[in-house]
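Quick check before the chapter quiz. The format below is the same one you will see on the exam, so make sure you can read both the input and the output lines.
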Amino acid sequence: MKILVLHGQEHHGITWHMLQAVLAGLKSPEDQIQEFTLNNLPSCTGCTVCFKQGEERCPHRSVYGPIIEAIEAADIVIATSPTYCLEMSGQLKTFFDHMAYRWAPHRPHPAMWKKAGLAISSTVGAGAAKVARTIERQFYWWLIPRRYRFSMPLQDTNWNEVSEKNRQRVQRRGAELGRRIRARGLPSCLSLSQRILHFILGMAIRSGKWLPRDTDHWRNQGWI
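Here is the expected output.
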């Protein structure tokens, strides 16, 4: 399998160690793992060029293009972020903003339908579960059918401060989740709610009151 990791922060802190715990149970020697750290990416300017003229016209396409191509080629997409002020990191949100054109109402990529997605977040206090759900919601609207979350509040600011008991808990829970993802395998189609969403969107797009670029995409895919 091809596993892609999107790091919402560049330091190897608690969230990074949670990822390593999952990978210990998930990966096999034959797997390919590709990683991108999302720090220092240019912010979306809201120019709407991707919606109206095409993603290839995005002023930041040279930076984001290789990451998006890696997502489309991967079998499992993992996004990680510490919890900052009850939200994901600004770096990860900046990346998600550039993926808006791939949302279900616009130009979803059919390759997403056979992927699994995993959201990982940690926190000192509260909010990690919320952040993991927010990341998972992005995966849902990309039309990734099989999604998982791994979040933990460890009450410490770095891995060196985490107690041995909690380290073992992270490693155990992460490895168990990794093995479960591996055993379950990849989906073959959209979830029921996504199929219903896709059908409703298709009906709306047939009305003709949609962005022309999106309508062309749906027609070229044979969805309308």
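If your answer matched, good. The radius of gyration is 18 Å.
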